[in-house]
Design brief:
The chain is mainly beta and about 180 residues long. It has a single domain (about 5-165), classed as OB fold (Dihydrolipoamide Acetyltransferase, E2P). Helices cover about 15% and strands about 45% of the residues. The chain is built from four helices and twelve strands, in the order βααβββββαββββββα. The chain has helices at about 5-10, 20-25, 85, 160-165, and strands spanning about 5, 30-35, 40-45, 50-55, 70-75, 75-85, 100-105, 110-115, 115-125, 130, 145-150, 155-160. Strands 1-4-7-8-6-5 form a six-stranded mixed beta sheet. β5 (about 70-75) and β6 form a beta hairpin. The protein is globular.
């Protein structure tokens, strides 16, 4: 069984609060869950995160792409598990005690994303987010909302909804994209 750590433990009193939602709506400051894939640090909108769980081996599904690790039963909901390292073509890293699955809720679809480690929750002002430069990278530029500068840290901010709903992932039916 994986260790369950609801996102509220990372930021008590903030997740789902009206204040956080109002800040996100104004575009001034948004909260991001940050995580590592290899040597890079990424961020995703905290409002898409349902919970964080320790990694547990999923049930494999025949003929699925290599980056689809399988499915897990999460309190009666069958959740597909995507290894973001493999999806982005990163070098293979062994699963360890820091490896976690971020459970996402995207347009009423629950999906798990395996990452090397979760860092923290950060508030980033929209002024600190710069557009990603046009260049070849392992992450399709369509899924990068920008680069966030927080002190000395540079975060690659992902549009996790577009990534999860993309046809290349094959997880969303046509009605979810509407």
């Amino acid at each position: 069984m994986g260790l369950m750590e609801p996102i509220q433990k990372l930021m008590p009193g903030k997740t789902g609060s009206r204040g956080a939602q109002a800040q996100a709506a104004t575009g001034m400051t948004r909260e991001y869950l940050t995580f590592r894939l290899g040597n890079e640090e990424y961020g995703i909108d905290i409002l898409k995160v349902q919970e964080i769980r320790g990694y547990e081996e999923p049930t494999h599904i025949a003929n699925s792409p290599a980056f689809i690790k399988g499915v897990v039963n999460l309190r009666g909901v069958i959740v597909p598990i995507v290894d973001l390292r493999m999806r982005f073509g990163c070098e293979k890293v062994e699963y360890n005690d820091f490896t976690v699955t971020i459970i996402l809720n995207v347009k009423n679809r629950v999906v798990g994303a395996v990452v090397d480690a979760v860092s923290d929750v950060m508030e980033i002002n929209s002024e600190a987010i710069k557009p990603a430069p046009e260049m070849s990278s392992v992450v399709d530029a369509r899924f990068i909302t920008g680069l966030g500068q927080v002190g000395e840290r540079m975060l690659i901010l992902l549009d996790i909804e577009s990534l999860i709903l993309s046809p290349s992932l094959g997880l969303a039916s046509a009605d979810l994209g509407a």
